Amino acid sequence: MTTLNPTLPAGHTVRLGVSRIGYELKSYFRLGDTVFFTFLFPVLMLSIFAVAFSDLPFGTADGTEISAAAYYLPGMLAAGLLLSGVQNLAVDIAIERGDGTLKRLAGTPLPVFSYFIGKIGQVLVTGTLQAALLLTLARFAFGVELPTDPQSWLTFAWVFVLGIITSAVLGIALSGVPRSGKSATAVVIPIALVLQFISGVYLPFTQLPEWLQNFASLFPLKWMAEGMRSVFLPESFAAMEVGEAWNLPGVAIALGIWLVAGLVLCRFAFRWIRKDS
Description:
- The chain is an all-alpha fold.
- It has helices at about 10-30, 30-50, 70-100, 100-105, 110-140, 150-175, 185-200, 210-215, 220-230, 250-270; strands at about 60, 65.
């Protein structure tokens, strides 16, 4: 991976990166298919589940019941982190590498760190907007009662920030896997879809076979979904988790490990040019 430009001071490198966030946001929202499959997809899925299962109560053994919208909200928030970070950046960077955009950037004074700041900043902004849209939709369109205690929102904040940054870093690392920009969606989207189905986003996690639970626990989405459920579901729903409790220390440890692993992988996987160049 290209190192920082030694002729540029660190402050200038950061300023260049921050200035690229605006450019990245404009480019992102100009691509309709990207906006749909990363930004609006969780919103669409929450709406579908909330309407399709509106007559079905979701509850626990003690008689606590919530609506379908309330039940699926945490999973859609977690899926949004994965899509905004991993899927969005992995496909976007692979395409930029394939069409020569990164090769042209490599010939400019732009440090790779500034490029990363622009990409991660774009993910932070779009992920925040997406989460706000999901929460607004759930509250005002489907009547979901949101938490009122500061502790729940503090938990939401650190799960969200740690999850979105980890997803962004892993997206940069995964962008080195597709051999071309044309194959990026075919490589990345199936990975994102499979993880959503096995990580407790669409299906109750503990209803999956034990071996599949163990496999899904190796990946960050399972932990992001559990962290979000601990915020937005009633306390009695913790009995439906592995170990019958919210494992927030496990969430922090798993995401921290994946963040470090992603940074290491970026060091070896990110390239300015295509593999066959």
